[in-house]
Amino acid sequence: MKALFIIIDGVSDRPNPELDGKTPMQYAETPNLDKLAALSITGLHDPIAPGVVPGSDTAHLALFGVDPLVAYTGRGPFEAAGIGMDVKAGDVAFRANFATVDENRIIVSRRAGRIKEGTHELVSLLEGQTIEGVKVLIGKGTEHRCAVVLRGKGISADVTMNDPKVDGKPIKQFKPTADSDEARLTASVLTKFVEFAERILPGSKTNADRLQKGKLAANTMLVRGAGVSPHLPDFSTTHGLNAVCVAGGGLYKGVARMVGMDILEVPGATGGLDTDLDAKVNAATRALEKYNFVFLHVKATDNLGHDGNAVGKAEFLAKVDKAFAPLISLPDDTVILVTGDHSTPCPFKDHSADPVPIMLRGKQQRLDDVIKFDEYSVVRGGLGRILGIHIMPILINEMRLGKKFGA
Amino acid sequence: MKALFIIIDGVSDRPNPELDGKTPMQYAETPNLDKLAALSITGLHDPIAPGVVPGSDTAHLALFGVDPLVAYTGRGPFEAAGIGMDVKAGDVAFRANFATVDENRIIVSRRAGRIKEGTHELVSLLEGQTIEGVKVLIGKGTEHRCAVVLRGKGISADVTMNDPKVDGKPIKQFKPTADSDEARLTASVLTKFVEFAERILPGSKTNADRLQKGKLAANTMLVRGAGVSPHLPDFSTTHGLNAVCVAGGGLYKGVARMVGMDILEVPGATGGLDTDLDAKVNAATRALEKYNFVFLHVKATDNLGHDGNAVGKAEFLAKVDKAFAPLISLPDDTVILVTGDHSTPCPFKDHSADPVPIMLRGKQQRLDDVIKFDEYSVVRGGLGRILGIHIMPILINEMRLGKKFGA
Predict the structure, then answer these.
(1) Which of A226, A237, B158, B314 could bridge across to B183 with cysteines, CB 3.0–4.6 Å?
(2) Are B266 and B280 in contact (CB under 8 A)?
(3) Does the pLDDT of residue A84 top 90, yes or no?
């Protein structure tokens, strides 16, 4: 059997006055999701645990069957993986910003005036350094954001950041937070790397252009969020799955890559409102020919939740539903699982700990009488209220790949 | 946002023949609780875990978000905290009874004939001892009960009790249960303290009065329930809450104090049937002006369960409901959570592991179709079946104070 594992990011919500007191899932016309609900066993899951507000990274780990309380080592590795860097277990990874300092190294702008263009050049100028035997990799994120990955022997994540977190303060020193050679080496490498950046960046074409236009120069780099890249279990060895990811957003591809999925690049998959949903669904269903596990991620529901745009979220969800029409006719040897990674209620404009609807269409499975896929209907579902970490084992069981514990 | 966290002790029950096969929650007229249920998301919780019979102390720890499997170090520290002693982390605390021994140190009465009066004098006679460098603190409980707290270096909870647990047997020796200097010192300090008590107590005015009236003298002390007082996380640092407790019963104030709540003394709050419920509700709602977390505890439902008095329990619950009328009009920026700490079914006359109804009224929250607050109705509730330890995180999420795990 095969599996199509669909995550609609931040899809679940709370009642919204703009939607007559309904949630976007309740309000949107979703005939295909509802048809699937009727064919599925449904329920709610707490991505991490009841009451714990999930991040997208920790939630995806849990939903991929990896305990985030063990595997989540800080934002750095996930940020780096998310922008497409091939982070390896043992690398020490950081989030980083291009920033602006004055001649006294006081932070003028932590985001270099939210620099948008030219960061490709800046990154290319900083690439390829090896400092004290440690390789320094750098990857470009959106706008001022990038990631720094240290690779080599004798490094650790026990270092402070150089980011004072507010403008107007002096840039900080990297300091070891443990009394170890590894911590001292890491602090030294980062210090020299930022010194190097401050020597090189001012002479860039990008900064020359910016100064000419009266913009702030991206003349330093703030580094934070240290984490040792964890060794995550691989989908193929753990579950015997040949898995692929269809996603627009970088983080989702990154986490998928970390658990050993192939990444299918789909033209038009942007991770935004303008994403080509039909192309993604088409790519996902076709990938089922080659892979026995396809992860399909839809992002914009979360963005709309962060914006507090309940009407937009309901409208986008209706579009998602239309694009999902082909799923109904997938043969029953393909398990279809649809859920969210967390709730992003429009009234919160952020993630919340509210549990997330889930439905699983298997073969000759137990059903329930839920025929609508929304936060309220699935309360009566046959899955009850489960944890995020339980989802992969349940899916694996439905694929009849479950290994017996005992005899 | 603010929160009013209400525990009706032992409120949940089982069907009782005296109530036409209904539970007290089902039988009692509770229009206000039911109105609140209609405005709430409801469900059931297992205070510790399914099938585990909770104590009042362990249940309250869990409901305050502290894992009792980690933090519960024996009854002593909680008993001591419960009678108002300022137990510090690291103290070794014990439950104790005034008791009567004959000239051969055979126990005549483990409770000194259930002594009620004069124990204040007895405690004052025993106060202020330092034995082998260890401070011995003593606190007065109800009737024959008190608590002994050892404070100092080099002590432990690895000692046996001197209580033979039945009348007619000789008082026991304190013995170390570990081969350690700490255990030996503790046994020695307790032995000398009880020797001291047996020298001092016979000469008390209280005992002279008792003998004259033909009552048993409180001429020794039985000590049991050793526990090292745990270091509990503080509500203010853990959750950023400014919390206060409104309770009659000592134990509840004690646990509340241990997690960093202020204690509001309310005249008429007795922890019994005669408690002034209106005064407590009034104090709790007024405390919401100063505090952002108010814990309101109602005790007598549990007492009536222990008595097997189902009719009395239903009647008292109806009174509680009347007193709760003002809660309905609390503004929606106050989260209202109502639950019990465990079930005390009248047919058991003791605590049981039956899960406990819970309801949470938040702001713009998901609801369910439950409109009655009882054991049967909440089975269909939107919270499902959760653990006691999950309640605080869910409440914190509802207060929008939840910290994201990950990004």
Answers:
(1) B158
(2) yes
(3) no
Over residues A275-310, the pLDDT tens digits come to 999 999 999 999 999 999 999 999 999 999 999 999
pLDDT on residue B250: 83
Alpha-helix runs per DSSP H in B215-273: 235-239, 250-258
Q: Do B405 and A52 touch (CB under 8 A)?
A: yes
Say which of A353, A355, A385 has its CB closest to residue B393: A353
CA distance A202 to chain B (A): 32
Residue B407 confidence (pLDDT) above 90:
no
- The verdict on B39 touching A (C-beta cutoff 8 Å) is no
What was the pLDDT predicted at A198?
97
CA distance A332 to A328: 10
Give the per-residue pLDDT at A79: 86
Interface ipTM > 0.85: yes
Sequential DSSP letters for B24-64: HHHHS--HHHHHHHHTSEEEEEESSSTTPPPPHHHHHHHHT
Do the chains contact at B366 and A23, CB–CB below 8 Å?
yes
pLDDT band at B79 (very low <50, low <70, confident <90, very high): confident
Interface test with B, best of A52, A349, A374 (most B CBs within 10 A): A52
Percent of chain B with pLDDT over 70: 100
Amino acid identity of A78? F
The predicted structure's pLDDT at residue A74: 86
A window 56-75, beta carbon within 8 A of B: 56-59, 68, 72, 75
How confident is residue B84, by pLDDT bands cut at 50, 70 and 90?
Answer: confident
**B404: contact with A, CB 8 A cutoff:** yes
- Helices B75-82 and B250-258: crossing angle, nearest 10°? 110
Of A16, A45, A40, A44, nearest in space to A28 by CA:
A16
Within 358-387 of B, beta carbons closer than 8 Å to A belong to 363-368, 380-387
